[in-house]
């Protein structure tokens, strides 16, 4: 993957291509995902160039979700994709701190623009997770990795942790404002006026998420499984 000004050029070396309802990965797909995952956490925290580039090229819908659907049997690519989705869906408050907002290095206009970019991205991510196909894939992997498994391997423990973090991030993501929830403050604790949050919770628990959580909480490896922090 050729970097441009320190940013991986995802437009010139795509992760893959969607053709006739099938997604075909490129030869560099795993290398690209690995490099993006490595770079996204050490990019400039003031401007977030890589994150914004990925959002601009709509990598979420063009590549990441199609990879989950069509390439789920390639464990290394699947794990790298889930990991990138976790980094991409981090709450806006974790990306733009109060200290940064007061910094002279960033204008208020630029901060507000970035906030809007990241928030719009999270709206889209949450809406996409309402599709049963996406949540089913995530929960099927959690189920296969945890239930009826006496001991989970190190790599699988990492994947379980990232799958749980992804679910957490999506549940925390804001819901696109409507006439009923225009005062949304980012707290999804009360779902009465947020149909997407209600629907997402219903989908997750209808597909056995509750059983998975109970199993994980009673698992001897729970300390390892829940040790990922963002």
What's the layout of helices and strands?
Layout: E1 3-4, E2 7-8, E3 16-19, E4 22-25, H1 29-40, H2 49-56, H3 59-70, H4 75-88, H5 92-95, H6 98-102, H7 108-128, H8 132-146, H9 154-172, H10 195-206, H11 209-217, H12 222-225
Antiparallel strand pairs: 1-2, 3-4
Helix pairs in contact: 1-4, 3-4, 4-9, 8-9, 8-11
Organism: Daphnia galeata
Protein name: Timeless N-terminal domain-containing protein
Subcellular location: Nucleus
Structure notes:
There is one protein chain. Residues 2-8 and 183-189 have low confidence and may be disordered. The chain has one domain (15-225). It has helices at residues 29-40, 49-56, 59-70, 75-88, 92-95, 98-102, 108-128, 132-146, 154-172, 195-206, 209-217, 222-225, and strands at residues 3-4, 7-8, 16-19, 22-25. It has a two-stranded antiparallel sheet with strand order 1-2. Helix content is 59%, strand content 5%. A hairpin with a 2-residue loop joins strand 3 and strand 4. The chain is mainly α. The longest helix is centred in the middle third of the chain and has 21 residues, at 108-128. The two termini are 26 Å apart.
